[in-house]
Amino acid sequence: MGIRQYSILLLSVCIYLPILEATSPNIVFILADDLGWNDVGFHGSEIKTPNLDKLAKNGVQLDNYYVQPLCTPSRNQLMTGKYQIHTGMQHQIIWPCQPYCVPLEEKLLPELLRAAGYATHMVGKWHLGMFLKECLPTRRGFDSFFGYLTGSEDYYTHHRCYHISELNVTRCALDLREGEEVAPGYDGMYSTHLFTQRATDLIHNHDHKKPLFLYLAFQAVHAPLQVPERYTAPYSFIKDKQRRLFAGMVSAMDEAVGNVTEALMAHNLWNNTVLIFSSDNGGQTLEGGSNWPLRGRKWSLWEGGVRGVGLVNSPLLEKPGVTSRELIHITDWLPTLLNLAKGSPERTTSLDGFDVWKTISKGTTSPRLEILHNIDPLYVDIAPCTGDPAQSLLPDLTHKPRPVTSRVNQSDGFDVHIHAAIRYRQWKLLTGYPGCPLWFPKPGSTSSLQSSPPCPTKEAAVRLYNIEQDPEERDEVSALNPTTVDFLLRRLHHYQSGSKPIIFPDDDPKCDPGLSGAWGPWA
Ligand SMILES: *[C@@H]1O[C@H](CO)[C@@H](O)[C@H](O)[C@H]1NC(C)=O
Ligand SMILES: *[C@@H]1O[C@H](CO)[C@@H](O)[C@H](O)[C@H]1NC(C)=O
Ligand SMILES: *[C@@H]1O[C@H](CO)[C@@H](O)[C@H](O)[C@H]1NC(C)=O
Ligand SMILES: *[C@@H]1O[C@H](CO)[C@@H](O)[C@H](O)[C@H]1NC(C)=O
């Protein structure tokens, strides 16, 4: 090759490289809290979600998409790309005074994206631990953070109360931070507005030289049921007060999603953005949510607890306007987004997630055949299992339930007393008590609560369902498919043998937000 050709080649390499860098897509991940299967318009809900419906319709709707049954676990899996059993966080959620967080040796998604050149911002709910400063979002890969650290709080005062049973005291304090600093001064501002405003400000101020990663984890639509009246006004036809308030909260969140997408378009970011919308777990039927016609609810391994609401919208989708029936799990986002970002997963070890971008963008077959929903030998259901909130006391979610000691004995294969579930292709196997087993009626219908025909209560049991034919988990078919049952029990045993010891420490009495004026690191 002559000198002239060589320098042309060099020149084109020099020009080409910066363009390559600039094309890494912006990633906007919107996570809704406690949004049920039947709580969005595109699933047929009576709740109106025009913005989400539009994104689902001309994007890719994820119809066979799974999350975890609780807040901390889903967020943990999103951030690590690993199953709960592989981080020691298979049991429950992180309560405000528990001294632990996602193990510090884990490299979280924002840290990996930052290494790939991204500006990384988080707005909203963290819930991945905060007893040490090293656990905070800004120490785990986010350039900026505006939001709260615990699992729930008041939407206007941003205060959280928590009862420490060891001391028999209830502590209440603000939980809102700007970076690592306490953020007073937002009293009276509804969190859906506050967080949307912050998200659109970040979009407005974004320096286009870097790709953007924005993680917007709404407080909506978790309890307490609070919303400005204008959002409930269109729902006077909903007689149930909880459902009406909940519907208003969903509408406010839908408006927020509209505002965020508009801001991306207005600032010329949209044409190179991948927007993902996901729920974190099933709806809480005691607090206005609905997973109809699916069985169970949040805190359970039934489909009502784990089948997620999900969609992807982006001008980069090669075949938009479709509903994907391919199996996708929340652990898949980390490798998928990292590959889109041309980032390097080399610092991550043994992921449970798969890169599903081709599946989403082009409609190819999902590389995922199996999902470990969870294995939790300490499982307890904290809420009353009944359909009528008036007949039961609402669960006191300011208290941490005490785990029971399990009867784990592995020498004989998988102990079917253990609360666990696994999916393989169309099959789902559940063992132990999966959580509240009821089918809650469609909101507004007069049909009463249906309990499971031979009501399997808390005794050990193995249940098998063909989810593709029977998504409502009505026909238990383990007796007809002994080979499948054996195979799935062996898979559970395999996973159980490789699980990390459970981290679930007692409350630390030293956790006193009174000292700093807010919930936050104390150790
Ligand atoms: C906890 O405190 C409350 C009031 O402060 C008291 O009524 C209750 O008996 C105490 N419970 C225990 C177990 O000490
Ligand atoms: C969306 O933007 C409009 C117009 O700025 C504003 O009035 C509304 O409060 C915003 N909605 C949310 C949920 O932030
Ligand atoms: C996106 O829009 C900007 C501004 O209009 C333009 O410069 C850029 O080339 C577009 N990128 C893509 C991938 O179309
Ligand atoms: C575990 O199971 C084995 C075989 O069934 C039995 O011999 C052993 O005593 C059990 N261990 C405990 C701690 O229950």
UniProtKB/TrEMBL annotation:
<dbReference type="GO" id="GO:0046872">
    <property type="term" value="F:metal ion binding"/>
</dbReference>
<dbReference type="InterPro" id="IPR000917">
    <property type="entry name" value="Sulfatase_N"/>
</dbReference>
<dbReference type="GO" id="GO:0008484">
    <property type="term" value="F:sulfuric ester hydrolase activity"/>
</dbReference>
<dbReference type="InterPro" id="IPR024607">
    <property type="entry name" value="Sulfatase_CS"/>
</dbReference>
<keyword id="KW-0479">Metal-binding</keyword>
<dbReference type="InterPro" id="IPR017850">
    <property type="entry name" value="Alkaline_phosphatase_core_sf"/>
</dbReference>
<dbReference type="Pfam" id="PF00884">
    <property type="entry name" value="Sulfatase"/>
</dbReference>
<protein>
    <recommendedName>
        <fullName>Sulfatase N-terminal domain-containing protein</fullName>
    </recommendedName>
</protein>
<feature type="domain" description="Sulfatase N-terminal">
    <location>
        <begin position="25"/>
        <end position="343"/>
    </location>
</feature>
<feature type="signal peptide">
    <location>
        <begin position="1"/>
        <end position="22"/>
    </location>
</feature>
<keyword id="KW-0378">Hydrolase</keyword>
<comment type="similarity">
    <text>Belongs to the sulfatase family.</text>
</comment>
<dbReference type="InterPro" id="IPR047115">
    <property type="entry name" value="ARSB"/>
</dbReference>
<keyword id="KW-0325">Glycoprotein</keyword>
<keyword id="KW-0732">Signal</keyword>
<keyword id="KW-0106">Calcium</keyword>
